[in-house]
Amino acid sequence: MSNQTTMTEFLLLGFSDIQELQILHFVTFLTAYLAALMGNLLVITVVTCNHKLHSPMFFFLINLSLLDLGSISVTMPKSMSNSLLNTRLISYSGCVAQVFCLFCFLGANLSLLMVMAYDRYIAICKPLHYGIIMNRRACIQMAACAWAAGVMYSALHTGNTFSLPFCHSNIINQFFCEIPQLLKLSCSDTYRRELAALAFSAFLGLGCFVFIVVSYVQIFTAVWRIPSEQGRQKAFSTCIPHLTVVSLFLSTGGIAYLKPVSDSPSPLDLLAAVLYCVVPPLMNPVIYSMRNKEIQAALKQLLHRLILSKNMSNFLS
After folding, report:
1. What is the pLDDT of residues 56-75, one digit of tens each?
2. Cβ(278)–Cβ(227) under 8 Å?
3. How far is 118 from 114, CA to CA, in rounded Å?
4. By C-alpha distance, which of 248, 227, 231, 198 is closest to 68?
5. Could you give the CA distance from residue 153 to residue 134 in angstroms, rounded to a whole number?
6. What is the pLDDT of residues 82-114, one digit of tens each?
7. In whole angstroms, how far apart are CA 109 and each of 51, 104, 146, 312?
8. Sign of CA dihedral 257, 262, 264, 269
């Protein structure tokens, strides 16, 4: 394979050649995927069905759940099907689509977390102007900008990566198409491209991180000025889930992309990829459900309605 045009497929990392371990990998990934799917769909359903939750904070939470669903659906189903079918193949176009979609969802996720920090800042530091600043139109525009930022970020990275000729090998030492692993397969000098991509990602991530930190410094300063303890606890209860999600997203992403890329399949590379691909989409619904009393109350109300309607249908039948 001497150039990019003849590269028609890649070989992804297989978890094991032993059938029993392949089945174990499939069952483990399937369990995690279904749990993330159910958790995020439940958050979307609860917020959508409860009119009391039709506020900017929960509108952004729906978008976050959609992004989590997208990011985990890009990588895990393909890996599960490969284990089930005992294959490692992914087509060139499939690899391009996987890289583009994954970076689109991750980039939009980071942008949305910054928007959610701004929402908390306005709600706590400028409560009298909250309804004016965070109106319906503004919320839709901010969410759309977050998605658009993800698309542009992804297009830049995907175009930068797949414009390179691949000739060293077609074996990717990861269970999905990952840019650092793809850069290793290029037969051209990837130093400048890799440095530019890393610098851009670091600039974007650092900019969002600084914005979130500055927002929360002002938020906590305002919270400590609230005279009542109940008011402080209520303010903290809306901030802690978001801060936890931000910390989880940035820490897992940092571990995955700031560590050196090994020349051979490494358990550390695999663990890092699982951390940022699986853990945030799986844990985000749990974090918001456990820490947000409004979500808990709406969830109980929804379950009560479902049980009541089921009992009613059984009674009528």
Report:
1. 999 999 999 999 999 999 99
2. no
3. 6
4. 248
5. 25
6. 888 888 899 999 999 999 999 999 999 999 999
7. 25, 8, 8, 41
8. negative
